[in-house]
Structure formats: C-alpha cells, structure tokens
C-alpha cells in the first residue's frame, strides 16, 4: 500500500514508518521540518504546515490510506487535532482516499471504564482541558467523515522493542490502560490498515 503519514516526526509516527517499511509498504510523510525525520525510512517527504491545504493534498496524492499521528506539545490551544484532521479528511474525500487511521488516546469520555480510570481521567481533564477539547473535536471530524476510519486509543506509551502478539480490544480497558511500546502501537496500526473488521471502530491496545 501507499500510506501517507501525518505527524511522522513524532515517536509514534517514526515507529509506524519503521513498521511499514519492514512490511514493504511505501510511505509519504508530510512534515514541517524534514530534518526531524532523522533516519526514519520514508519514500517521499512533503514539506509544509499541517494547515497548508496544498501540502496536505500533495501528500495524499496517490495514497491508498492515511495515518494521523499528531501530538500536541507546548501550546495546547493550537487547533492541530481539529483543523488539521479536517483538512486531511477534506483532501481525502476530494482524492477518493477512503482508509483513515487516527492515533488518539483513551483518557477521556466514553473511553474510560472503572472507578480508578474515571478518577484519573477527571484529574487529567482538570489539567489538560484545552487538549481534550481538541481531541473531542477531532473525534467529531472523524466520526462524520464518511471514510473507512479507525481510531487507535492508547494509554501510556514508552520506548522498547515490540513484544508481539498483543491482543486488540474493541472496548475500553477497565481501570488503568496497559502500558504499550511505540513499536507495538505501530504494529497494531499496521495490522489494522487493511482489516475491514476495524472500520468504523475504536481500538484499544
């Protein structure tokens, strides 16, 4: 497949580029600063802001699927999740690219189960309200996109090798979500790419 990756310079994006390369997929990365890709394996790089409509369209031209792995740092009022995802979805519709996977999180709303999970989620919302508003706005864009979407909702991520054979779940974990390596998360996204059973569903590593 030809896969376009947004947020490719982040830890999740780079882990996915490595997994995709091992599986023989071709990748395009749309990034602000190509130097931040380091030695990540990527076939084509499109330079531009995530809010640059022409760059987004260029990156998606010829794609079979798109992976959004945006991560907000610092200025949490930036509409990266909402407006950035909206521009990608609009371009995908115009170019007839149907498959979309969004890497998000499980620390809010209906993605939290159990008393301990809800308690931690309440504390998280108190300290990260602008970021979570952006996540909720992103969800609304994806759910109404009309695309073949999957949202992968991780808990705490950390470095380390892929452990392999990690079971996927379509329901939120009760209590604290298990820790997941970036490599395992990338492999889960890769496995979901051409799996119709994951269309229109949330996945919880």
From TrEMBL:
Domain of life: Bacteria
Domain called NAD(P)-binding: residue spans: 7-196
InterPro entries associated with the record: NAD(P)-bd_dom, NAD(P)-bd_dom_sf, Polyketide_Oxido-like
Coiled coil spans: none
Cross-referenced SUPFAM superfamilies: NAD(P)-binding Rossmann-fold domains
Protein name according to UniProt: NAD(P)H-binding protein
């Amino acid at each position: 497949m030809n896969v376009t990756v947004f947020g490719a310079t982040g830890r999740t994006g780079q882990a996915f580029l490595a997994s995709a390369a091992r599986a023989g997929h071709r990748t395009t990365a749309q990034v602000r600063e190509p130097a931040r890709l380091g030695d990540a394996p990527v076939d084509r790089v499109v330079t531009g802001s995530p809010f640059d409509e022409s760059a987004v369209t260029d990156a998606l031209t010829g794609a079979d699927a798109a992976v959004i792995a945006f991560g907000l740092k610092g200025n949490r009022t930036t509409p990266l999740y909402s407006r950035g995802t909206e521009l990608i979805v609009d371009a995908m519709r115009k170019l007839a690219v149907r498959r979309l996977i969004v890497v998000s999180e499980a620390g809010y709303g209906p993605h939290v189960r159990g008393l301990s999970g809800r308690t931690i989620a309440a504390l998280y919302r108190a300290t990260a309200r602008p970021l979570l508003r952006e996540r909720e706005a992103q969800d609304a864009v994806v759910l109404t996109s009309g695309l073949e979407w999957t949202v992968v909702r991780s808990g705490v991520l950390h470095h380390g090798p892929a452990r392999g054979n990690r079971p996927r779940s379509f329901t939120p974990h009760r209590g604290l979500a298990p820790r997941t390596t970036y490599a395992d998360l990338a492999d889960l996204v890769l496995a979901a790419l051409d799996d119709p059973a994951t269309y229109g569903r949330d996945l919880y590593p």
